[in-house]
What does this fold into?
Amino acid sequence: MPESRIDERTRWLALTVLCLGSLMIVLDTTIVNVALPSIREDLGFSETSLAWVVNAYLLTFGGFLLLGGRLGDLFGHRRLFLAGITLFTLASLCCGLASSQAFLVTARAVQGLGGAVASAVSLSLMMNLFTEPADRAKAMGVFGFVASGGGSIGVLLGGVLTDTINWHWIFLVNLPIGVLVCALSLRLLPTAHVAPEGARLDVAGAVTVTASLMLAVYAIVNGGNAGWGSAQTIGLLAGAVALLAVFLFIESHVRSPLMPLRLFRLRNFATASTVGILWSAAMFAWFFISALYLQLVLGYSPLQVGLAFLPGNLVMGALSLGFSAKLVLRFGIKPPLVVGLTIAAIGLALFARAPVDGHFVVDVLPSMVLLGFGAGIAFNPVLLAAMSEVEPQESGLASGIVNTAFMMGGALGLAVLASLAVARTNTLTSSGEEHLAALVGGYHAAFLVGAIFAIGAAALGGLVMRSLPAHAPEESAGAPALASE
It folds into this structure.
């Protein structure tokens, strides 16, 4: 459907389609976690090989985000969104039907590839659909809720499906949703596309940055097992840095770079990307470390773990879908971002006092509510800040960079926090602490560092981010919004 012919009702229906596609992809970063014990028992995974059910997805998702965003700018955002959703849906079917370890891990890698392509262009499609300030703020609130709440919703849904049916359905549930998203996308999403003049695909840049990101993700997600000081981890990270240096050299010399380095001269874009890394690391402390505390310390079932996240999800949804947009329109980007991240940091810090014999109402619920409140307020301003200064023809690339920042932040944060928790637990165990007490001590250390990540993100946003007028963030993406400054 040509963009000029899209009426108001169709725009919001199109946003629903984009959110369904994004939710399906975001869910798969966390939905498998509560099902991992069942998958291990059914397919005979070892403790080490089981991690690849998660890592294979993270590896390809993080590696192909930038390339997916650039392909969307060159060949059309709708076309790439459809290709990504189709690939993701077919891979989900293969995951659900998997009866061997190799087949499941391979299908998960393909899932990550499809998810990367669709995610890299979905934000661009949303930004192009909504150009009016008030509508864009509302739409970004909905989109932000899906992006920020999808991880914790995945924990809930994974617990429900695993407990009531079996683990296969955490993947098979994507099939009808994917078919519906593809069908509605063909009818509702705009087909209008103008490629940047003289633009060509930067093959050398695509190969080097994708290889660099995949090496980095591989090193990060395996750092805990191989050892952070091991030759494997150091060698992989050094290789990733070397490839990144080659990529930056290429980008500064080719006519049509995959990632124009001038984007990082835009203060809000560079700051929001860095804030996204820290914020995503803190959010993964919430999703994963708190889930481990509930399961391994308090003895919750997968379904109970999912239900424990429900209050935070409800608060996050209520704020993201209305209140956050009003705050941005009233105060601009910076104040809601700083306040939201600070509240989330307090929620994580409260988790750092949760005892071995904790009670849900006293020791879990307050943190969940505060984290939901903080995430519901902060996520919308982070995305708006990232896209506020970007030219429309580069929105797909910018979206890919922002998604890459969140993905790398999450992977790095998870690896660091998990390794920190294990190291602290081992130290406490060797000093004579009882097992559960040592386990909780490790989680406390991870929660405190997660809180530091969130506070760091708040400080960075408050001190460095450009303070735009309240109406500017929602104007059409690009430099004109900043012309008066």
